[in-house]
């Protein structure tokens, strides 16, 4: 079924047609709210810029009323992003909508997304209200949001479990009130694809003003059906999919952006719909989100998993050598995975590095070549050969370093062996003019190092999660340390990368401590206002 609705993005959108499915990315809202440590403003901005380059139509980047940090990041992103519409979330109450409008007004055009629950279980148990009162709140919220922008989206939370008569009433009322997009979430990932398709079909058949809005879907993955449900809804006429990179999000996550984008590209002839996604940006964006969010991607994940394009069995390998379409329905290059692997050495010049970065999907504006080249040479001297993964890891590492960082680890010395204790001594620089030298023991090298850093800083924190992984292939890959530390009931993620895992562990802790320092500075600035 095709949908003849005019698009809700207004005249500045990129020529949407009824065949176009709007990609509404919610990695920085639904995805971020499910992380065990929230992202810094700098990290959110990096992800937003990556999503812009990926070609998403709309990005939902936060819930401004929820915290000053969220407000600030929504505002910064709204100020920076020019080629996608930026959206913020608000419950159906005026204070939330005010916060959203305040944070977003720095953008030329923006969307306010307001929502309220519509299912019996939510209306009765969570909201403890009558459906008619909830409907009145929804109508008021949409009208109120329209005072700030023409682009208002309304969501019927838990639509998947809402009685269809109530859902039809709510959708009609929201459109009448001025919503240009109405979203039908399967909030708890409960519906089956044929059932969800039936709901969308019923809405198209029964809601008299349905042609005045774009129908959107937002499916959660509790039964592993988020992508199937979203595609079934598109077949019934939905023209916006809400999704996240790598499918991150509440509980089992959201519909995965890369999967729906590649379905609509690979099966376009059958489905008759397409998107504005630049598919070759998928792998790069997926890696960035996975690293910054501390959410590894499972090896067998469709499109972006480490094994998504590797062939193990002899029969498959034989087929691939004869013709790649025997076992591949899309190429790795089509999602931005570089085929040729070059091993770089300290003899490789700057132009080779630039060329390699370009093949990996990075533009020259993504990095400062002198800094990257210096780090590359240092690594090449240690490792001999530098691979693509190493190069990307160096770039991530540089992007995490902020000239405003308060703490910097100057020297580390750790000794351990057969004896009872490991010992660590460090020199930690703080601000522009302070440094601290600290030595201590611990029950292992990382423990000794962390005790020394803890004693050198005036911050009471606990390490709540710590892991080391191999970045790149082979035994000489770089070591990546990821840790989560808890300070005043808030979690902070830290990330470090080095050929030496002890050094990577030290960097990760200092990275997280810098985020805490920024949080303290923001709180002090707010208190002084
Ligand atoms: O899952 C959900 O229903 C949501 C809404 C706020 C759209 O995230
Ligand atoms: Zn959701």
Q: Could you list some keywords that capture this structure?
A:
529 residues, alpha/beta, TIM Barrel, 4 domains, 3-stranded antiparallel beta sheet, 18 helices, 14 strands, 19% strand, binds 3-methyl-2-oxobutanoic acid, binds zinc ion
Concise overview:
This protein has 529 residues and is α/β, with parallel strands linked by helices. Helices cover 41% and strands 19% of the residues.
Notes on the protein architecture:
The chain has helices at 27-31, 41-54, 68-80, 94-104, 120-127, 131-146, 164-177, 193-206, 226-235, 257-266, 268-271, 282-293, 314-322, 350-359, 369-383, 388-400, 445-456, 501-528; strands spanning 22-25, 58-60, 85-91, 110-117, 152-157, 181-186, 214-219, 240-243, 407-415, 422-430, 434-442, 462-471, 478-487, 490-498. By secondary structure, the chain is of the alpha/beta class. The chain has four domains: 15-292, Aldolase class I (TIM Barrel, Alpha-Beta Barrel), CATH 3.20.20; 309-335, no CATH class; 350-398; 407-528, Double Stranded RNA Binding Domain (2-Layer Sandwich), CATH 3.30.160. Strands 1-2-3-4-5-6-7-8 form an eight-stranded parallel beta barrel, surrounded by eight helices. The chain has a three-stranded antiparallel beta sheet with strand order 9-10-11, covered by helices on one side. It has a three-stranded antiparallel beta sheet with strand order 12-13-14. Helix 3 (68-80) packs across helix 4 (94-104). The longest helix is centred in the last third of the chain and has 28 residues, at 501-528. The radius of gyration is 25 Å and the shape is globular. It binds 3-methyl-2-oxobutanoic acid and zinc ion (ZN). Zinc ion (ZN) binds at residues 30, 185, 187, 218, 220, 250.
